[in-house]
Amino acid sequence: MTEQTKVVVIGGGIVGCSVLYGLAKRGVTDAVLLERRQLTSGSTWHAAGNTTYFGPYPAMTRLFTGSIKTYLEAEALSGQSVGFHQTGSLRLATSAAELEAYRGLEALYDELGIPYHVISPEEVAAIYPLLNLEGVHGAAHTPTDGHVDASGATYALAKAARQLGATIRTNSPVTGIERAGAGWRVHLEGGTIEAEHVVLAASFWARELAQQIGLDLPLYALQHHEVITGPVKDLQGLTEELPTVRDPRAPANIRQERDGFLCGVYEQNPKFWATEGIPKDFTEELLPPELDRLMPEMERVIERLPCFGDAGIKTVNNGPICYTPDGLPLLGPVAGHDGMWLASGFTVGIGTGGGAGDYLAHWIATGAPEFELSMTSPARFPKTMPRDEVLNRIKSAYEAGYSLK
Ligand SMILES: Cc1cc2nc3c(=O)[nH]c(=O)nc-3n(C[C@H](O)[C@H](O)[C@H](O)COP(=O)(O)OP(=O)(O)OC[C@H]3O[C@@H](n4cnc5c(N)ncnc54)[C@H](O)[C@@H]3O)c2cc1C
Prior knowledge:
Elements: E1 2-10, H1 14-25, E2 31-34, E3 50-51, H2 58-78, E4 89-93, H3 96-103, H4 106-112, E5 117-119, H5 121-127, E6 138-142, E7 146-147, H6 150-163, E8 167-169, E9 174-180, E10 183-188, E11 191-200, H7 206-211, E12 220-229, E13 244-247, E14 252-257, E15 260-265, E16 272-273, H8 295-304, H9 306-310, E17 313-323, E18 330-333, E19 340-344, H10 349-366, H11 387-399
Parallel strand pairs: 1-2, 1-11, 2-8, 4-13, 11-19
Antiparallel strand pairs: 3-7, 4-6, 5-6, 9-10, 10-11, 12-15, 12-16, 12-17, 13-14, 14-15, 18-19
Helix pairs in contact: 1-6, 1-10, 2-6, 2-10
The structure holds flavin-adenine dinucleotide.
């Protein structure tokens, strides 16, 4: 049986659901999202949910700032909580050059109407007395961001999209994509859908799906760890949740998780996962944790936040995370393939997914992007790149952590 629709979105993570919601919000309800298993089954379910407003690239900052806005909008419409904790964030400057670069962004945040302050080490200490600020020159403080429940946000987007008239089909793996006249034919196990537009929001699975139409997408999955501690004595009795801290020296992000900490670590010499193809039997399981590999970074985390070291480690999550050679997503139309759109390769898909979905939906619905964002254009990479070069550049992008390129 062949069905017809205007847009097919492939992938039910936070990005795909955000695109669908953005389309439905603009009246494009003739849109179907197809998800292989359940919503959030890819990287989204195990993400820490950090959603900062800080972006080192001015052009990307609108995706960061647009994300929380989109999640809260979907929450209001659907009644599904996105679990937003407005803790604010501190991006530490571990050199004078970093502090200067943070200052250079002040005008942008003024223009966007987002509170953003570059503060002294003394002011950092007043906000976060538990930090050891040796070698810290100051920080960028974004007091109105924080973290969301990544699954809650995805379900809120999905529910709001459905309420507006869009369709979601779970347990519906796409088995093939091909050209059909001016549009596209998408094959499922039990049928076919013809669509004017197809959005590939399938993260690291997008590579193999795109190969079917002759595209060689430069994206692969790396292993990424987050470490969750047990209760921390120094957190007892705090009346307000601490801000999220991003430390370029570790490099790591640390936020409060109930009465303990949750720390995402960018280790040097990271390991890839499934470079020969995503295993067909992969569902949504985590990968075996390899805490030993994180020791140098964890030592720097403990130097920065000594009470982290007093807490026992409760959980270590190692999950696949999608990366492109410059660490930025592939977001936009595919040149020479009218009606084919990419929304894949997100490394901070919770932080940027809401804004990115809105950006792409606007483009599909109106025929033009809302603002200039060529740094995420799929056309910024050559049509094919040697695999070693892709892998080496991905490794460097990951290792760079929070350094400013
Ligand atoms: C440990 C860890 C912590 C993280 N913490 C954060 C954080 O704090 N903040 C942040 O911004 N990011 C974080 N991330 C990254 C974040 O998880 C991802 O950037 C984000 O989830 C990507 O969303 P997505 O929708 O692009 O991909 P996914 O969530 O992977 O969704 C892709 C979907 O496509 C589906 N799919 C694949 N193939 C097919 C097919 N053939 N047919 C139909 N459907 C298909 C999959 O089942 C999947 O549901 C973290 C990652 C890890 C590993």
